Amino acid sequence: MIYAMSDIHGQYEQFLTLLEQFGIRKEDTLYILGDVVDRGPEPMKILKYMMAHSNIIPIIGNHEVMALPNLKLLVPEVSRNFLDKLPPKVYQDFADWTQNGSTSTIQDFRKLPQEERHQVVQYMKSFRPYGKEIVNGQEYWLVHAGLDHFSETKRLEEYSVEDLVWTRIDYEIPYFDDIIVVSGHTPTQNILGNNRPGYIFKANHHIAIDCGAGKSNGRLAAICLDTGKEYYAR
């Protein structure tokens, strides 16, 4: 079986709840479509679980794109005047990240021994830009956010990471008639015309699976591509 979830944002307990629900086996594959880190309390536990399971395929999200260069700076022990020593561009990137929910990630990361910090950074560097699967004759493209600078003639391999992690999809317009795009990034609470906000949204060859795990009216969600079955942590 092939499963997909997205935008876990440090919600480790919800993550475990979902894994228990669908009872993932060694021969199954789980795609995680980015944004494992930031906002929620326990991103390192999730990353360490992912690292220990080779059947979990990590796809990069915009929060990993923001976090990675900054986490590299935090692998060694940080001095009191750490921020004062940063070049202006690096300082600005760090400041931008802190405005996007990095505090929990920084705190969790700094609890790790230095060698584990290094391992986590190396693992995050290995995140893929996209996934592609054919299930029951249906082709699926799995990306964090969508396909920016879209063209029907463009192969998935031709999109840059920036194209795949920042865009907002117009869910009323299909990308393709024959390929289904599975994405996170935009909480389904924010999709206009969605009559089930906070639950998986399917329309026009889109499947949107960011159900706002950290929101009071949201939850972590997953879908099985083989069966279409939806799973919710709460």
List key phrases describing it.
globular, 234 residues, alpha/beta, single chain, 7 helices, five-stranded mixed sheet, Purple Acid Phosphatase, chain A, domain 2, 29% helix, 17% strand
The Rg value, from CA coordinates, equals: 18 Å
Q: Percent of residues in beta strands?
A: 15-25%
Model regions low in confidence, pLDDT < 50 over at least 5 residues:
none
CATH architecture: 4-Layer Sandwich
Task: Average the pLDDT over all residues and give the rounded result.
Answer: 95
Indicate the multimeric state. Answer: single chain
The main pleated sheet reads as: 5 strands, mixed
Please write the CATH class name. Alpha Beta
Total number of helical segments? 7
CATH homologous superfamily classification: Metallo-dependent phosphatases
What is the 3D shape?
globular
Helix content: 25-40%
What string gives the helices and strands in order? EHEHEHHHHEEHEEEEE
For the termini, the CA-CA separation is: 22 Å
Instruction: Find the count of extended strands (DSSP E, 2+ residues).
Output: 10
